[in-house]
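Re: the 177-residue chain
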Amino acid sequence: IQRRIYDFIEKKYVDAMMEEGSVDTSTRFKAMLAQAKMIRLMQAASDPSMLKTPLREFMEDDECPVEAYQAIDDADVLSAILDYEQKEVPAKYQAVKELVETIISEGGKVVVWATFIHTIHGIKDYLAQNGIAAQELYGAIPVEQEGVSDDSDETILTRERIVREFQKPDCPFKVII
């Protein structure tokens, strides 16, 4: 499913809309498609379920020309995007799990880098479903404030607290994403 969605975006949808003699759409619309192409390809390659939000926004855009809607005749691919999370687990999640299991079984700890916040949440959830504790560490996690001691508020999980915990030999999680 993921490969079909990726091919659809790369070859048929975006390229066809940008070709000469294609559907006559506004210059603004063509510029929006060109600008979004790379991010959509990255999302399709990473986890096609991330395409649901931009797809819904696109379909709800009042300024989008009618021709754009008529150019999308692949309902099966659009349906695959919307239903992707219920039908398939991204191959990268499975590969991450296998690598993490190998490293942890050898006594190591793992830092997983991801481009999208959706991917960070998805990998953490997938690992948790497979019995692997992980901690997210990205921009939305608060930083410690000056003058606040480590003991002052145990309920606030900060970036620094996560790193300190991860560095302990008896850390309850072996993965930071």
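The first strand starts at residue 110 and ends at 111.
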